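EI: anyone free to look at a 183-residue chain?
SC: sure, send it
EI:
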Amino acid sequence: MDQVQLEQLIKNLTTLPSETETVEFKENRFSEEDVGKRISALSNSANLLDKKKAFLVFGIQDSTHKAVGTNFVPSREKIGNEQLEFWLSKHIHPGIDFRIYEFKFENNPIVLFEIPPAYNQPVKFNNVAYIRVGSATPKLSDYPEKESKIWNNINKKSFEKGIAKENQTIPEVLKLLDYSKYF
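SC: here you go
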């Protein structure tokens, strides 16, 4: 996403009356374990609610949805010798293509995690699946009816009819495809 798209997305998200099962706001950093749990929960909730994406946004005040900025800079965070993004990707199973954007909105530093829905099984962090219930993040196993619905949604979708990668330019598509084999 470019700067204009990111700004428009934040404007749209901050007009929500409150956090949802697929949108969570935080002002500043919290533990990497909490970030991992939120990614799991938001991905599973996106599947449950049939959403294309879920979002974890740092730098937005939860109560007012006002941009206040954050001191959390994921690209500088390390756990041991590993970058945060790499560390998270090792602890999230199955692997999902979450994206992290660091940018300015209204002169405030913002961090946006863009999280895809669970697609072939519930997403787990450290072998535990989480879900959003309102603004809470409990274990998915405590909500068997929600887990059942996630599995039903997964079983209804055909992999072959899904979109492999969105928002690509023509040169990017040509780079990803071995189109010469088609000819």
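EI: Helices lie at 3-14, 32-48, 84-91, 144-156, 170-176.
SC: 👍
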